[in-house]
Write a structure and sequence with these properties.
605 residues, alpha+beta, 12-stranded mixed β-sheet, 14 helices, 29 strands, globular, disordered N terminus
Length: 605
């Protein structure tokens, strides 16, 4: 009997001890695993609050407060569990303006002309407390994280004014991170004094998001705020000049012809209706109207203040950047310029590129390893992984190919030169061309139609011989064009294409267009001050095309297409402007893996 009693007691003790074991994050193969104790969403603690900032942008007498919502495992209340935070901030959570007629600027006018006023819609705010968003919670809460959301200034129940890249959009997430780390105050109401503390936070924060939601993590990181350990921006807008302008040219983001920064302001302004008149007058109708300059497209202090590359010096958060090479909305240069600077500053950095369009996060295992290391402190070796991961043309998104870096270290620029015949198809070769050729601008003809036309007076097209081997392009192509214009102002558009052009429903996004670029010839010598073009006078214009990493298959030809107005991206002046190219002063340098020898081998007959 005695032995049985002892065994039963021991068994019960084990059962009781096991049942009282506290839930903790679990890691396997360097990744946070789903913990059953964290998985029941009905037991999650959800609440909202307002974090006080150190700025006042909506014209009242108090500092703006940001609306914040929290989703966390109940063990943070019952067991004293502290966890790191995945934080997402956005101007979109409370709704956006509808696509009403007149919302966008009318692009059909002469270059340099004043445009007619557009419509300013009002956003109908939506959403109920306490939920701001459900994004990311099912991914991260079961894996041992707390997920925090906030509405950016002047949107939803957050106070202040939206500035679309202004300093308050950096300081707002900084304030939330400061609160998560015990350095700022949170309150139960937007105007009350009852405080809320983030007692459940370890003080380790990671941020992520896509598009504008991916811009805000970078904005927060540029403040150098302590506690922001890692960010995963996906297709972020890193410079509003690069988003709405291109080398001095007024250029729309793909799919949104006529959009500009003030349009985006109206689109997201879902904050307090009573504060909107002040915000509109102060931000949209004064700061933006005086600074955005749709007449010349020149770079100025207004745009410099909305370029996060210029604000990166304090940044220290580990960076996992993601972008699509065929994203013609927020174009791939946005991520590359930040990634390149982060490397220079010694910030732990990796970049993930895919071949699709806007959006597209890194594979879950990459994101998991990144946050596991930098937020939970698990030594999983992620900092020693390949710097660059690229999804090849026919591969799945979760099967990227690792590379030593981006651009491919084995790539070097190969200068190619156009030769006469561009109204049909001139050659694009290693030897310099001679002579002059003229095109006539006509925005009514699309770039697609120009590229597949056997002959057109509206574009100049120069092609390589048919490739006998694949060519791997990796990096940023650079073009130099010597040209004259029949008018004082002209659009300049450049497409690098893969020919023959393919039509039909089964055309892949990686076919036809390789990369693109746009510029204003008036800014040939200065991005900050353009000058009218003298008719017949030649100018040299030099600029980069969008970064790319693509394998052009054998049997194709690489074509350089030069034209004026791009129907999908630029303003639409009356047809008829003539651009004349001096072929002897025109060249495009392609980033070829293997350099000149690889290119020469691929075009050898």
């Amino acid at each position: 009997m005695k032995k049985i009693f002892i065994s039963t007691f021991t068994f019960l003790f084990v059962i009781i001890a096991f049942s009282q074991e506290k839930a903790v994050p679990i890691f396997k193969d360097g990744e946070a695993q789903i913990v059953p104790a964290f998985e029941d969403s009905k037991k999650w603690v959800r609440h909202d609050l307002w974090v006080e900032t150190n700025f006042n942008t909506d014209g009242d007498e108090t500092m703006d407060r940001m609306h914040v919502s929290v989703t966390r495992p109940y063990q943070t209340d019952t067991e004293g569990l502290k966890l790191p935070v995945v934080y997402v901030s956005s101007p979109y959570f409370a709704g956006v303006a509808g696509n009403v007629d007149g919302l966008f600027w009318d692009v059909k006018h002469e270059l340099g002309a004043v445009e007619k006023e557009r419509v300013h819609p009002e956003v109908q705010r939506r959403g109920k407390r306490p939920i701001i968003s459900n994004s990311h919670i099912k991914t991260w809460v079961p894996r041992g994280y707390i997920v925090v959301h906030s509405s950016s200034p002047g949107t939803g129940l957050s106070q202040g004014a939206p500035t679309v890249g202004g300093i308050n959009e950096s300081l707002a997430p900084k304030a939330v991170i400061d609160w998560l780390c015990g350095r700022a105050k949170g309150y139960t109401t937007p105007d009350g004094t009852e405080e809320v503390a983030a007692f459940w936070s370890t003080g380790k924060v990671g941020m992520t998001g896509t598009s504008y939601n991916g811009t805000i993590p970078l904005a927060a990181a540029t403040t150098g705020v302590d506690g922001l350990e890692a960010i995963i921006p996906i297709a972020p807008n890193t410079s509003y000049y690069h988003y709405y302008r291109a080398n001095g040219l007024v250029r729309s983001p793909g799919g949104y012809l006529g959009e500009d920064i003030d349009v985006l302001y109206d689109f997201i302004h879902s904050g307090d209706e009573a504060k909107r008149p002040y915000n509109n007058k102060t931000v949209r109708d004064t700061e933006m109207k005086n600074g955005m300059d749709r007449i010349t497209g020149d770079y100025n202090d207004f745009w410099a203040g909305r370029d996060y590359l210029l604000q990166m010096k304090p940044m220290k958060a580990a960076l996992l950047m993601s972008h699509g090479f065929n994203d013609w909305n927020v174009m791939p240069e946005h991520s590359y310029r930040i990634y390149a600077q982060a490397k220079k500053q010694g910030i732990p950095s990796q970049i993930f590129y895919h071949q699709n369009g806007h959006g597209g996060p890194p594979p879950m295992t990459m994101r998991n390893r990144w946050f596991t290391h930098y937020l939970h402190g698990i030594d999983n070796g992620v900092e020693k992984d390949a710097r660059a991961w690229i999804v090849r043309e026919n591969d799945a998104m979760d099967q990227p190919t690792p590379y030593a870096d981006y651009p491919n270290p084995e790539a070097s620029l190969v200068p190619l030169y156009p030769t006469q015949g561009g109204l049909s198809k001139g050659n694009l070769a290693l030897d310099k061309g001679k002579g002059k050729e003229t095109l006539i601008d006509d925005y009514t003809v699309s770039g697609n139609d120009l590229a597949k036309a056997e002959e057109s007076k509206h574009r100049l097209l120069y092609v390589t011989p048919k490739l006998t081997e694949n060519i791997h392009l990796s990096g940023t192509a650079n073009i130099t064009i010597r040209l004259s214009s029949s008018k004082a102002a002209a659009n300049l558009s450049v497409w690098l294409v893969s020919l023959p052009w393919k039509d039909g429903e089964k055309v892949k996004i990686t076919e036809n267009i390789i990369t693109r670029g746009w510029a204003d010839p008036q800014n040939h010598s200065s991005l900050t001050k353009g000058e009218p073009l003298e008719s017949g006078k030649f100018y040299t214009v030099q600029f980069d095309l969008m970064p790319d990493d693509q394998i052009i298959p054998k049997g194709q030809q690489i074509g350089l297409m030069i034209f004026s107005s791009d129907q999908e991206y630029t303003l639409h002046p009356s047809p008829g402007t003539e651009l004349t190219l001096d072929l002897s002063g025109t060249t495009i340098s392609l980033p070829v893996v293997g350099g000149v020898s690889a290119f020469a081998k691929a075009v050898k007959k």
